[in-house]
Input
Amino acid sequence: MIRFENVGLRYGMGPEILQDLTFQIEPQSFQFLTGPSGAGKTSLIRLLFMSLRPTRGLINVFGRDMSVISKQELPALRRKVGVVFQDFRLLDHLTTYENVALPLRVAGKDEAEYRSDVIDLLKWVGLGDRMHVLPPVLSGGEKQRAAIARALITRPEVLLADEPTGNVDPPLARRLLRLFIELNKLGTSVVIATHDIALLEQVDARRMVLAEGRLTIFD
Output
């Protein structure tokens, strides 16, 4: 689904922060991306989401070479990739329901087409009774689940989660992890960026360890 070959990344004229990354994200796979703070995990997530282009090397996404994908084509490809950011990025003037439905509204879909799907997904993540409140009223864990629901509503082929349990207590972290596992069983490839060792030990999954700009993979 996504293939990196000898990918390097630098910002401006600075040194390369990612070097010679070669790996693949296979269909229906589950993997952790880990490493120390500042190792470049968020930059790698942005490359996977196609919000950054590499300085060098090849990135192939869904059979397309990223270097020749036009700006007009990017939105359609990105809809195949759901992403959960560390800072949630919920819009405070929209309700939980409206935040989750936003990707579908932006895609031009009529509410009659998706209303029941949004409601069912909010119930699935445990927010069925919080769908009509604004984000400032939500707890950190509720915001996290709303962000996850928004990432899932387009039924992505790949889900990227950047430190998805960083703002929640251990019981909620385990609950969120179960959501990701269930999603993976339904056919979505999952990439979780985390430095939470306790989380890593709960699932027998591929580990992609990023350190000093280089990636080591443990299957």
Remarks:
- The chain has seven helices and ten strands.
- The mean pLDDT is 90.
- Residues 170-185 form the longest helix (16 residues).
